[in-house]
Each structure stands twice: as structure tokens, then as C-alpha cells.
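Target protein
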Amino acid sequence: MEDVALLLQALPYLRRYREKVFVVKVGGEIAKTPDALDVFAQDIAMLSQLGIRVVVVHGGGPQLDEVSDKMGVKPEKVAGRRITDDATLEMAKMVFAGSINTDILAAIRRHGVLPVGLSGLDGEVLTATKRPPKEMTDPETGEKTLVDFKNVGDIRDCNPALVRTLVENRYVPVLSPLACDEEGHVLNINADTVACTLAAEMQAEKLIVLSNTNGVLRDVKDPESRYVYLTVPQAEDLMKTGVVTKGMIPKLQGVIEAVRGGVKRAHLINGLTPHSLLTEVFTLKGKGTMIIDAAAEKEYLERG
């Protein structure tokens, strides 16, 4: 009976989300863990088979660090942000558009749906510009330094026409975070930024960012202290008051911008928790933190 109750709880969501677009960003931590990747692929296949139009965007920082180590190239980062020199860019192309993308495709294909591997270069999905030198502050010393991120890009334009064509024909696009500028120079793009930009451009019903944390926490030492949902103003207050710190800040800033750009609901969840994706989508309390605008809060409280 418990299983039946769960199905009945999911029923209104099944009706609501059919034919809607979900953009799902999966981090490298999940992609490099075989069991977690398989469960993630099961969840993606389930969403697709339920008639939801799913787009996957992936990162791969840990895998790139591993390849860099094997190649004898020490990863260079400032305040957690990677500097992509020419050697690192060549490895990023191998890792992002190659091994990780292929592993995700294979995992999804194993569960009976049809994935298509892409990067931001395909069909001009993304056009970028090289990031100019930027002043960065060392979080430990407070020292400010002008940093050249080299082959790192910022998104100038997003054209989702190819992605729309694929999802409308029941394929699952799997997008790696590479793009190029108008001269054809390949650039490394932050995967969270890619997912947030694409979701806003497609006016997605949901943007779901999977990482290795349980969402936004009241107490970083207590993984169970997550906020079930936050409005945009509430989320901004948590950053201003220091409740949200370190790596969660750019993720939260990204999804806030996506919601402001037209995404209905954004979610930050732990992709290492089995079936957290389905639980977040089809149950009221979910498994992570949902970000909505203030106008949508009343609807959420009334309908879930």
C-alpha cells in the first residue's frame, strides 16, 4: 500500500510535467561513480519515458583533475576556479566531449532511451567570448590578484534550436560544457552556467542541479538541515548574511538568475543519494532545495 500511496502522490506531477522541458545538470562526482551514474541514468530514462523532455548538461572537474595528474600537468585554480591553459584545454576536450559524455550516453542508453552527445559547439548552441583578466580575491588571505583564466569563456549567445529539435523527437541531448568564439577558438565554460543559461533560454519548467550536497543547508555541519524551498529574496538574504558560503554561492546565484530568466522552478539536490532526482520531482518535500520566485510561492503552498 505504501508503494501505491507514492504513485498516487506522483499522479498530479505526472499530469503537470508531461511535454515540459527539464534541464538537468549532473556534476563530475556523480559521473565518476558507477553506481550513482547508473541510478541517475535510470531516473533520466524514467522522466523521458513519462513524456518529459529532458536535457542533460554535465561537468567533469574531478575527472579533468585526474587526467591532468596522469599527464603531469598540475591543475591551476584561483578561488576554486580553473585556469585553462592550452594543455588543460586539450585535456578538457578529451574529457568533457569524450570520456564523460560517452559514459553518460552509455548509461542512459542502457535504460532504453535515446541519448545524443553534444557540446556547445554543435549547431551553435553556445557562442562564447574569452574571459578577460579578472580581479580575484583569495578567500584564505584576502589578497587580490589580477587573474588571466586563459581559455575560459563566458557565454555571449545561446541558440537552443538544435536541442529543441532533439527533445521534440524524443531524444535526450547530453551537452558538454565546451563552446567556441566567433573565430572558432574552443573555450572551457562553467557547466553550471551552461545549464542555467540553457534552461532560461528554453523557458524550462525545471532546472535541476545535482552535486554532492543536499541543497541549501541551515547548518553546513548538518546535512539534514536543508531548506525544502526558498524564494529568490530569501535565497539572496542567506548569501548576504553568510548562511550560504563557498561553492554553494555560485550555484545559488546561477539558479536565481535562471528563475529570473523564466525558469519555473530550480532545484539543488544531492545526486549521490539514490533516486534523489525522482524524489525531488514527484514528491512534495523532495530531497533538496527548490528555488522559486515570490509570486510562485503561493501556488507552491496551495498545490505543491
Observations:
- The chain has a mean pLDDT of 93.
- The chain has one domain: 2-303.
- The longest strand covers residues 21-26.
